[in-house]
Amino acid sequence: KAEGHVEGEKVENPDTGLYYDEYLRQVIDVLETDKHFREKLQTADIEEIKSGKLSRELDLVSHHVRTRLDELKRQEVARLRMLIKAKMDSVQDTGIDHQALLKQFEHLNHQNPDTFEPKDLDMLIKAVSARHE
């Protein structure tokens, strides 16, 4: 007897193993609340997603969705800063290059820590894609 999923039931996805897995999941969940973006995502092929074409659709999502994405990005930047601080605290050398540490985090644009832009979505997609190639 096959068991089907009830509509609206949350399907648990396995952990991707990415250190930004939670951030990735939250961004996807928020983007899927926007009807237009969800439709574009469902009809896009993998090349459209990887090429950044889908990221440009971010400009068309609702203000509420953008505000939530901005909030998620600020939380992720704060989390990364805590990781960097912990790493710095564990290393006594004061010659640490903060920018070099930030560049390790390729899943978001760290030069703009306050707002979630199409570049952020593009970087998140590219980081995930590079990991799975």
TrEMBL record:
GO terms for cellular component: endoplasmic reticulum-Golgi intermediate compartment; extracellular exosome; Golgi apparatus; membrane. Pfam families: NUCB1_N. The keyword DNA repair does not apply. Residues 6-128 form the NUCB1-like N-terminal domain. GO terms for molecular function: calcium ion binding. It is found in: Cytoplasm; Golgi apparatus; Membrane; Secreted. Its main location: cytoplasm. InterPro entries: NUCB1_N (IPR057576), Nucleobindin (IPR040250). Keywords: Cytoplasm, Golgi apparatus, Membrane, Phosphoprotein, Repeat, Secreted, Signal. This is NUCB2 protein. It comes from Grantiella picta.
